User: What shape does this take?
Amino acid sequence: MPTEFTMPKTGHIEDEATVYRWLKQEGEPIEAGEIVLEVETQKAILEIEAFESGTLLKILVREEETVPVGTPLALIGRP
Assistant: This one.
């Protein structure tokens, strides 16, 4: 069963962030702790790492889209 990879809380007052760049593409393997994407906040561009290993099955939020914290960004699991 796929796991949702969600937009993390990036700061104390940040309620949303923009997907700046995906570093992995659909179908690629991901290891826990590996940087998967970069998000842009009002103050910086931050690297976001995966919290579990698997395959990036589906990207749900594309680059340049701004979404609230907790929004599913992608699905990770077994192909």
In short: The CA atoms of residues 47 and 68 lie 17 Å apart. The radius of gyration is 12 Å. The chain has a mean pLDDT of 94. The chain has one domain: 3-77.
